[in-house]
Amino acid sequence: MTNLKTYTAAAAILAGSVLSASACEVTLRSSDTHPDGYPTVTAVQYMGEELAKATGDKLCIEVFHSAQLGEEKDTIEQTQFGVIDLNRVSLGPFNNIIEETKVPSLPYIFRSVEHMHTVMDGPIGAEILAAFEAHDLVGLAFYDGGSRSFYNKEKPITQMSDLAGLKFRVMQSDLFVDMVSAVGANATPMPYGEVYSSIQTGVIDGAENNWPSFESSGHYEVAGYYTLDQHLIVPEVLVMSKASYDKLSADEQMAVRAAAKASVPVMRELWAEREKVSEEKVRAAGVEIITDIDKTPFIEAMVPVYEKYVTTDKLKDLVTRIQATE
Asked: From CA 232, how far away is CA 266, in angstroms rounded?
């Protein structure tokens, strides 16, 4: 459980925001771990502008970016308790809370970013968002988190056998550890902030992430090979505290949902631009980008991972329907 100091610190920050947002009758407080100017932060700020227009400035949103209110695990709990009103989080931290979120977090569940959009914008996505309500949260929208691919400092990876014996950092997640082990590499869970020096000093050979993270972290400076295998295309999710949502009128609830939906194409456009800038910077630095790769062996290697994590009929049905979506 989140400790009292975390709540006290968050409460102090939130209390200090009241005067700055006094033009609105109700200011919804939103958390994000990313910095100001990041696509997810800007998208929620846009949502706030749309919400203010729709409600005649009755409802506004103030985004607390840069993990001001805590890391994702802590902010999820605070949102469930109503300390935070809105929260933008990756689906990963929800995997142990809401079983339906495991499926979009599986390796190679999506064939492309476009496939992910089709699935998450349709009835399957709506079903997964609805699952949040049983956990004191209201699922509002899915944002992009990019596609994650392997990068390393040793050699170009053009086939699965090239991964054998290489040490890759992964997020501190059992699913990620099993995914990397399944393709023959050695998974090393570690905090994100330690990756650069660990590659540089040889503690690990590489890691896996999306274009903007590979570039903004500086990892491209120490890992000269980037293989676009796109093993993970995990969406981000925007949720609202059910306690906060239930305080609103039916019209206000509709306005919140509409504003959240309107922010999705804005976020995606910003994300696509950010990816392009990052890719150009990485290519200009001389990193070798490997695009000619057969994903089939990688996908086949994930069978035991699916067997371990897709254990209920509900999850198996979700997987089947996602794979059948064109």
From this structure: 22
The H or E element spanning position 207 is strand 206-209
309 in Cβ contact with 177 (< 8 Å): no
Mean pLDDT, to the nearest integer, of 159-171? 94
Element (H, E) at 290: strand 288-290
Element (H, E) at 250: helix 250-284
For helices 113-120 and 123-130, angle between their N-to-C axes, nearest 10 degrees? 60
According to DSSP, the β-strands at 236-241 and 86-90 are antiparallel
The helix or strand, by DSSP H or E, that contains position 174, with its residue range, turns out to be helix 174-182
What CA–CA distance (Å, rounded) separates 47 from 27? 13
Give the SS3 label for residue 239: strand
Q: Is 204 exposed, middle or buried (0-12, 13-18, 19+ CB in 10 A)?
A: buried
Biggest alpha carbon–alpha carbon distance for the chain: 60
d(CA 48, CA 42): 10
pTM here is 0.85
Residue 240: name the closest of 222, 261, 219, 221 by CA.
Answer: 261
Q: Which two tokens stand for residue 69?
A: 């209110």
Q: Is 68 helix (H, G, I), strand (E, B) or coil?
A: coil
Q: What is the share, in percent, of the chain residues with pLDDT greater than 70?
A: 93
What is the residue type of 255? A
Q: For residue 74, which amino acid is it?
A: D
283-314 pLDDT tens trace: 999 999 999 999 999 999 999 999 999 999 99
Task: Supply φ then ψ for residue 97, to 5 degrees.
Answer: -110, -45
